[in-house]
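This entry is retained here.
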Amino acid sequence: MRVRFCLLLATFACALTAVPASAATSTSGSVTIAVGGSAATSLKARGVTTSALAPAKLSSRTRRLTLPVTGGTVSARAQTIALGGRLRLTSGRRTVTLTRPRLVLGGSAPSISALIGSARTTIFTISGRKPTVSQASGHVALKGAKLTLAARAAATIASKLRLARRPAGRFGTVTVTARIAPPPPSTATPGQPSTGTTAPGGAQPQPSCRTEVTAVEPTLLDPAAFPGNSPTTATYVEWHVRESFSSYVGSDGGSFTPSAGATSTGSFTFRFPVTGGWTLGSVSQVLTSGSVRLYFPNRFDYVIKNPVLEINGGASRLIFTFSEAGKSDYRRVMTTFASPVAPFTQMPGLVPGGADGAGLMDTYCPGEPWGWTTVAGL
């Protein structure tokens, strides 16, 4: 089956489809919130005032909050729109400021999130209407969908403003009129960063170095092809996720959770115990066990497990088995290495560029740095 395989390692599932953001020539539009409903009334009754900070605008006459569109991505599965401006809630001398707002449509939980302090929090959930989307032009439209204050955001606001009761329920309706421009073409070469941009509001970096291929299962080295090999002496494999990707996932409520024997040994570093393998000269294959769940609200929810590390000169690579709901398990190359040498400690990984690599979203280009891997005892 033909799929759009982005060759950009980020969210790990080649069987799904990602598409170019759009063919629009510029980003424009706005998101308008018509404030009204039980949550808005509750805040007002408790003396909480709402104000908008530029470039956002709040009309005191119509109670309409307007946030300009500053960037984002448009695909068939989801639309992520970064917004400009800030929203401030004030009660006496206490304030809560919502910064870097972001709208996500499509998927199972459309929402508007923002940073409260340094933590990205879902502020509103969206229901009742579905957006009209044109991938070709990058246009997204939504009219009069229901906006409900999220429970976690309500609790945070009540705590910070010292409100006696949490606000709850409807906050109003939301209307979206947006056109999202495509990212600039990438001029990345293997081993060099792409020229893709990070959209305002914390949207994911968007280089443009995709190609369309048929995803294939990687073929593992066959020990029978290496007569005279010896059992591996390796004891564990550690895999460290690239910092910019782990920060991106963590900033919006995502998580990496080890299980089944895998353990966390540092910030976004995971250790897998060795279960077998072999070595012959400069060629080795190391089999491990353990799982890590990769979860990002409204984006992905996968389990990667039982990595296989192959040391084989310029063909060295780390391969994971992927599990996701409703699909059979499949293997993909997670990262490649440029001719690693002993002692194989924190070997710099590279984004794979082949059809057997892991990839889904437009985050990194083939050959870019992708964390590191250590194998102990080899």
Summary: The helical segments are 38-45, 151-161, 243-250. Residues 3-19+188-376 form one domain. The chain has two domains: 3-19+188-376, 28-179.
